[in-house]
Amino acid sequence: MRPVPLLLFFVIRLCSAQSLWLIPVPQQVVIKGGFFPLHSQCVLRDSAGRGAPAWSAMEAVLGRLGLDLPEIGRDPRTDKKSDGGIYLKVRETEAPGHYRLLIEPRYLEVAGSPSGVFHGLMTLAQLILGAPKAQDTVYLPCLQMEDQPRFGWRGMHLDVVRHFFPVEFLKKYIDLLALYKFNVFHWHLTDDQGWRIEIKKYPQLTQKGSVRHGSMVGHYNEGRVDDLPYGGFYTQDEVREVVRYAAERHITVVPEIEMPGHAQAALAVFPRLSCTGGPFEVGRVWGIYEDVFCTKEEVFDFLKDVLTEVASLFPSPYIHIGGDECPKTRWKVCGVCQGNIRRLGLRDEHALQSYFIRRIEAILQGLNKKLMGWDEIMEGGLAQTATVMSWRGTEGGLQAAMQGNDVVMSPGRPCYFDHRQKVPEDSLTIGGYNPLSAVYAYEPIPPQLPSEKHVHILGAQGNVWTEYMTHPAKVEYMVLPRLPALSEVLWSPAIKRDWQDFLRRIQVHKTFWQAGNYQYCETVE
Ligand code: ACM
Ligand code: ZN
Predict the structure, then answer these.
(1) Which atom in ligand 1 lies closest to the alpha carbon of residue 374?
(2) For residue 412, which atom of ligand 1 is closest to its CA?
(3) How far apart are CA 24 and CA 250, in angstroms?
(4) Which ligand is the nearest neighbour of the Cα of 322?
(5) I need a surface site. Which of 35, 341, 374, 393 has the fewest CB within 10 A?
(6) Which ligand is nearest to the CA of 353?
(7) Domains defined for the chain, CATH in brackets
(8) If you take atom 2 of ligand 1, which residue's CA is the nearest one?
(9) Cα–chain-centroid distance for residue 274?
(10) CA distance 74 to 52
(11) Percent helix, strand, coil in the chain (nearest 5)?
(12) Which residue in the list 191, 258, 418, 476 is annotated as catalytic?
């Protein structure tokens, strides 16, 4: 064993559970004194080879944060107890996300479910980043940890329509999700201002529908629009690459294809799918558009084709179909839509929206996928198997859970990270004030919800709408440090939350973000 520098020895002895820097804070941890030296003579012992991809993903995340681990040896023999052994034990039978981390002076072990071992390695990554280092050796504090997530849906969203972000940035974003134990990336791919996913059957969707001929400059209220073409889309190969990259990090990518509203980019390409027949242009201004998909049969044929390709690209059990902010203006005066209301004996246009969603639900069931939508999908009657994402406050989520539907909570406050995080406002934002402290204090289970219904609250999600985020650096700035705060809400037991201690830990994490060249908001309020 190498000699330990004297100063380091004291640093490590001072380690206590209260002085660790982990976010989210683990369920149980006991610091045992002493340290495990991680260096190039360590050997990864991973009998079935199932932990090795998680180890490689951990190395990649560390590399992103500017830390290149020394290359370590690999040996499939797990029975051989030797100094410097790193044991990965993947057990299919354990609960999702559950892991145990044992750091002893002579060896280190991560055991748990497949996702648990990965999350355990993300805990290890944070320990490595913050631990004392000398002579190419990382001195990890000896400890025993037992950990698992509080919620199964720990999501972060990104709107790539209002502004487009290249695959390289999506990977950087996904690495941040991985570091903080998120397991869902909600990818908002279509909207009024652009169609950003290649659909082989309808190449015009991206050839024409991905480009708008101008964007808003300054705040919406100023009403200023430039005339510069703006576009971008992901090929199906790129989509598969993002899905693969996320899966390596135990993150499910949930695609969102907006309907029946927020569909102007698709209607610009295929105006016959609207009520009026158009013509339309890809949206240049933000907001809500009156022209939406009609309820004619041709629309369901088209959406079935699109969803069939989308379903084949994404292993996610869920497909998000939007459903929010769909004005009924055109449906009220459209012969086909009014004919449908009469023929089906529907009460009104809200019931017609419910009919629309149920038709899509049936298409998705045929593709072996579950429907998820914003809480407007409840208007006119909620489809039986739908999962609701509650964004207009928590009322929709509460109601849906009472009815027995599953829910992901994402109320504007505190889950919208496009809102400003400091006073005075430091850059262009939307939607009001949503400081870090509000995110950290969030409780996803509504107090009125009876305990037997709690299982329907799958978790929560942070949303990142990008009207005012023109570049990756702004996205990073808006999510840091609110994303780690939400991670602790979603992963850690509620009684373990400690705002003052979180602020202490955030200071350590700022050094990680600096090393990874992530922008962040310095002020915390
Ligand atoms: C939304 O923010 N319109 C879901
Ligand atoms: Zn119509």
Answers:
(1) 4
(2) 2
(3) 17
(4) 1
(5) 393
(6) 2
(7) 6-147 (3.30.379.10), 153-495 (3.20.20.80)
(8) 391
(9) 32
(10) 9
(11) 40, 20, 40
(12) 191
How far is CA 89 from each of CA 70, 74, 77, 110, 164, rounded to the nearest angstrom? 22, 14, 12, 6, 40
β-pairing, 107-112 with 133-134? Answer: unpaired
Helix (H) or strand (E) holding 127: helix 114-130
- Establish whether residue 325 lines the binding site of ligand 1, counting it when its CB lies within 6 angstroms of any ligand atom: yes
Answer yes or no: is the C-beta of 498 below 6 A from any ligand 1 atom.
no
On the 0-12 / 13-18 / 19+ scale of CB atoms within 10 A, 200 is exposed
325 is catalytic: yes
C-alpha of residue 508 to centroid of ligand 2, in Å: 55
- Strand pairing category for 153-159 and 457-462: parallel
Tokens of 416: 């919208």
Q: Which helix (H) or strand (E) holds 145?
A: strand 137-147
Can you give the pLDDT of all 525 residues of the chain as single tens digits? Answer: 455 665 565 555 556 666 899 999 999 999 999 999 999 999 999 867 788 999 999 999 999 999 999 889 888 776 666 789 999 999 999 999 999 999 999 999 999 999 999 999 999 999 999 999 998 999 999 999 999 999 999 999 999 999 999 999 999 999 999 999 999 999 999 999 999 999 999 999 999 999 999 999 999 999 999 999 999 999 999 999 999 999 999 999 999 999 999 999 999 999 999 999 999 999 999 999 999 999 999 999 999 999 999 999 999 999 999 999 999 999 999 999 999 999 999 999 999 999 999 999 999 999 999 999 999 999 999 999 999 999 999 999 999 999 999 999 999 999 999 999 998 877 899 989 999 999 999 999 999 999 999 999 999 999 999 999 999 999 999 999 999 999 999 999 999 999 999 999 999 999 999 999 999 999 889
Active site residue 262: yes
Q: How far is CA 257 from CA 300, 321, 447, in A?
A: 13, 5, 32
Classified as helix, coil or strand, 213 is coil
